[in-house]
Amino acid sequence: MKTALNVPLLLRQLVDCLILTLAFLLALETTGASPYPANIPVWCISTISWLATGLYLHLYDDFRSRPFSFEFMAIIKTLLLHVCILTFILFYFFKFFHAPRAFIGVYSLYILIGMMFSKILIKKLFLRIRTNGYNVKNILIVGAGETAMHFHDTIATNDHFGYQCIGFVDNIPNQALNGKYLGPLSSLGHILENHEIDDVVLAIPESSREETESIIVASEKAAKRVKIIASCYQHCTSTVSMSLFGNFPVITIRSSPLDHTGNQQLKRLFDICFTLFLLVTFSWLFLLIAVLVKITSPGPVIYKQERWGLKNKKLTIYKFRTMTINSEWNSDGTYRLTTRNDPRVTRIGRLLRHTNLDELPQFFNVLKGDMSFVGPRPHVTPMHLELQKTVQHYMLRHLVKPGITGWAQVNGCRGESEQLDRQQQRINMDNWYIENYSFWLDCQIIFQTIVNMIKGDKNAY
User: Phi then psi for 452, rounded to 5 degrees?
Assistant: First the structure.
């Protein structure tokens, strides 16, 4: 049997080869390298290395049903490994490659820019092609229940996924199928033979083991791939992952890059180094603020407060005191939220809160390991207990260490609020950060925090 060519894959690889060639020539021109004959084998090895690395790191996977961020990360990983391989080859095998040391850096930058633009353009091109009915995969849905109908509605309303439902197979006909009912499970083999089908999607979560096995056997006999929709699909997020526990496939419905020990160690190392640098550099600022707090209002310089951190455990955070002492509770024992133009805030406290400088003592929380520099901001105990009951997915933010600053804070969601939708928005941002953590995202948040400190945050009061 002849194997059909994967035209989209070949097109993407061809475009990559073109981008690599243009980037190579531009890098030679930019760095002033001479066009020696040795450049040709370097270009060949670079191209082969990129294609092989891309295949290994899933750069050429089908990203039709996933956002561009997945493909972007594949580009970054491929580029990093490609640079390592190319650097090794140039330093050890190509002593006669006449190019400045900056060549690899410039070459990599051109590759990154070219790949980003080309992948976006190709994604848009395939979207237009699929919208017109080309490059579409035909699928057969086994099942006609609620799960199957939801899956069908998803692919029907998202043309860019590039899937077309040929029909449904189920023992019980469903009147809502609009003529797409093809027959019972017993006729699955006959249906697969008489229809052009790429994938079989099993959408009968409640099916018996025997039924599932017979469906898989019949599909594989007809050389069709089988995809199974897990019965817990409604609880899964975009970061769902599956791993093997012995012979058992185990689905993690919500995962995070911070689940990996390597990322945890990198984040901890960055926290320690960056915090020590700031402590040494701005030690004079700590002393100045401490003196101003002490001389402008009676009471301690440092304010301690109970909050909740990793794994829902209590921690004590440190801040420069910005309010008059003993003013955080109402006379009836309820917690008193900070409001705009709050009379409890001292003169120097207003400036500290507006510039976030009151948070500086939390550097010591970071060094202790209670907190991270970037992460979800911890709540005071009264708010913590209330939000557990009123806000969806609130406790998921306690899967990581809390932070001095976070994604929600740099996007305007800071401070306590009595509005439920505002609270939910903040928690959603915290959970988005957890699921999308990267070292570069932390750098972006820190940069935005510094900008907010300089210009002042209108939501800080």
Answer: -65, -35
